[in-house]
Design goal:
Length: 304
């Protein structure tokens, strides 16, 4: 079954194939299932980019999107996630996209449900489609990952984006630097080396900024927003330390003037809105992968 739960479960060949497919979709390639197919997006946490871009991707592939509002669903009456998915399966839904606050919510489901699950973010765990769109944006810029230095900056410990990206970028031959306030370092993530922020900014080809994940922890730093920005953010002065061809990424939503100066969000180096655009193509590729091979290994779908 073609679940997409973490990128660590994909070979590099599979990752690169998804990026190639996403590029094809960005150039206008069309792909359809032979019969109308139904998908559902189950979001148990807020989202703008991931939810909306999955929905655009689904509609571009001609899929029928079943509306699902967690607050108005039978989850409110105590239904389990397993029973929700089994219900959708039994009425003909062929793939579910899930965002959930619990780390690795998919661990048991992966063996018990009969349709592919696409992970749209699990707690502090993984965000594979965000990572793929980041990879697509980096490859468009540099043509390769090997030899690049990527600095991931901010609340590393609570970031599923940091976890997904550090693992796959290392496998692809990039060097990962982390820069974080002391209390948000992640001792469990061995894919990067911690450096001070000025070093990270000077050495990186890609500066990837992270939002403070306030919704996952109540930890206060005892700093004002201005103090955080000055000590741990990409200020205008730090942007001027970056190498001439280096770029800025951020998974967004952005807290302007906290992790990044507001005027840098759309500066020449920023690829933040390009990341969002690429998100649609990456999600088209991921949906195609999920739908095209059913439980019997039969291949569905066709280009036209
Ligand atoms: N980057 C990201 O996952 O954004 P949303 O939370 O808005 O989906």
């Amino acid at each position: 079954m073609n679940h997409l739960l973490t990128l660590a479960e994909l070979s590099l060949e599979e990752v690169l194939t998804l990026l190639d497919e996403a590029e094809q979709f960005s150039r206008g390639t069309h792909w359809r299932m032979p019969e109308p197919a139904f998908v559902a997006n189950l979001f148990f946490e807020p989202s703008t980019r991931t939810k909306c871009s999955f929905e655009v991707a689904e509609r571009r592939l001609g899929l029928h999107v079943i509306p699902f509002d967690a607050d108005m669903s039978s989850v409110q009456k105590g239904e389990t996630l397993y029973d929700t998915i089994r219900t959708l399966e039994s009425i003909g839904v062929q793939t579910v996209v899930i965002r959930h606050p619990e780390d690795r919510y998919f661990e048991e489901l992966r063996h018990s449900v009969h349709i592919p699950i696409i992970n749209a973010g699990d707690g502090c765990g993984h965000h594979p489609t965000q990572s793929l769109l980041d990879l697509m944006t980096i490859r468009q810029e540099f043509g390769t990952f090997r030899g690049l230095t990527v600095a991931i900056v901010g609340d590393i410990r609570h970031s599923r984006v940091a976890r997904s990206n550090a693992e796959v970028l290392t496998r692809l031959g990039a060097t990962v630097l982390f820069s974080s306030p002391e209390q948000w370092k992640d001792d469990t993530n061995s894919y990067g080396t911690y450096v001070d922020l000025d070093t990270a900014v000077r050495e990186a080809d890609v500066v990837m900024l992270l939002r403070i994940q306030h919704e996952r922890h109540g930890e206060k730093m005892g700093l004002t927003k201005e103090q955080y920005h000055e000590q741990y953010g990409l200020t205008i002065a730090r942007e001027q330390m970056m190498k001439p061809k280096s770029i800025i990424l951020h998974p967004a939503p952005v807290n302007r003037d906290v992790e990044i100066a507001s005027s840098l969000v759309e500066c020449e180096r920023s690829r933040i809105f390009k990341q969002m655009e690429n998100g649609v193509y990456v999600r088209m590729a991921v949906l195609k992968r999920a739908l095209q091979s059913d439980e019997r290994g039969m291949h569905n779908g066709y280009y036209f």
